[in-house]
Write a structure and sequence with these properties.
This protein is about 20% helix and about 35% strand. By secondary structure, it is an alpha/beta fold. It binds flavin-adenine dinucleotide and FE2/S2 (inorganic) cluster.
Length: about 290
């Protein structure tokens, strides 16, 4: 996977513009950046991420903390947390970063309380991001659950080219989706409970579509992000149909910059066929599916 060429990553302050709930699971955090931060994030590729400092943010009041997170809420936050972007807009020396997030533990509970005007420290842009294959005329996006955000950013980038894009978006239930369609993209929804779109896994919907539509696989590419088990399924389907596939992996990250070696991804060297480890934060988070050992 191509390395990110931006040398301008750094520690920047961002100001909260808005922070609102969208659907049952997702929140949208909009951040304003300017100056060197805007310069650094100007060339950010979809799938790149930043490490967010959330230890200074307040916890929600006790009654607003879901019971299942009550114990986790009290955990001290030592490490920054990684988030990718669902959109980035830079104009001149000002810009807006958009993050879609789900509340899962102490850091994201605190993220929920950020209000317009609050300041937050971010380190980024980090990682490599998706490598947009310009010669491919069909981009197939496959997103599951929390994997939707970076693919929204990717869909926007792809819409600037002549590539036809189709998106397969899966969730447990319709109410857990951050959006029912991706702007300017044919979007096919699947839900495990059948409350919206195809009933079943997004991988089953993808396979059915590939069998029925028989796209020219030499001109197609799959970009995917979501639960690892889903991406393993997408990688398998991509292999069966002979379609190139990029997967955006998640690991629990500490430094986010390749120092702590804590985010190992087992990979096969395509030339030597030997197994080894790459770092999700530095070599990824986006990898070619056929190099990853799921
Ligand atoms: C490159 C990258 C991009 C990401 N982009 C987004 C995004 O756009 N939106 C979003 O909501 N989240 C994203 N995440 C996940 C996000 O970092 C975690 O949800 C967050 O760190 C949770 O912090 P917490 O303290 O609230 O919960 P924690 O208590 O730290 O975690 C709660 C539970 O969530 C799960 N979890 C935590 N971190 C991860 C992880 N990295 N991968 C898989 N499961 C995890 C674990 O099961 C854990 O028990 C991304 C992660 C990575 C590595
Ligand atoms: S998070 Fe430290 S090396 Fe990847």
């Amino acid at each position: 996977m191509e390395k990110c060429t931006s040398k301008k990553k750094g520690v920047f302050n961002a100001s909260v513009l808005a922070n609102e709930q969208i659907g049952e699971c997702f929140y949208r955090l909009s951040l304003a950046i300017e100056g060197q931060a805007a310069e650094a994030f100007n060339m950010t590729k979809p799938g790149q991420f930043a490490e967010f400092e959330l230890s200074n943010a307040s916890l929600p009041s006790e009654e607003k903390i879901p019971n299942e997170l009550a114990d986790k809420a009290l955990r001290q936050i030592i490490l920054r947390r990684p988030f990718s972007f669902s959109d980035i807009e830079i104009t001149g020396n000002k810009g807006k970063l958009e993050v879609l997030y789900c509340v899962l533990g102490p850091a994201t509970l605190r993220m929920k309380t950020l209000s317009p005007g609050d300041k937050i420290s971010i380190i980024g842009p980090l990682g490599n991001g998706f490598s947009i294959e310009r010669e491919k005329t069909l981009a197939i996006l496959v997103a599951g659950g929390m994997g939707v955000p970076p693919l929204l950013h990717l869909a926007k980038e792809l819409s600037k080219s002549k590539t036809k894009t189709i998106a397969f978006v899966g969730a447990k239930s319709g109410s857990q989706l951050p959006c029912s369609e991706i702007k300017n993209v044919q979007t096919l929804i699947s839900t495990d409970d059948g409350s919206m779109g195809f009933k079943g896994f997004v991988t089953a919907m993808l396979k059915e579509w590939l069998v029925k539509e028989k796209p020219d696989v030499s001109k197609a590419i799959i970009y995917t992000c979501g639960p690892e088990i889903m991406m393993a399924g997408v990688a398998k389907i991509a292999g069966e149909f002979g379609i190139g596939c990029q997967v955006s992996l998640e690991r629990v990250m500490a430094c986010g910059t390749g120092l702590c070696q804590g985010c190992a991804v087992k990979c096969i060297d395509k030339k030597t066929k030997e197994a080894g480890y790459k770092l999700c934060c530095k070599d990824g988070p986006v990898f070619w599916a056929d190099e990853v050992v799921f």
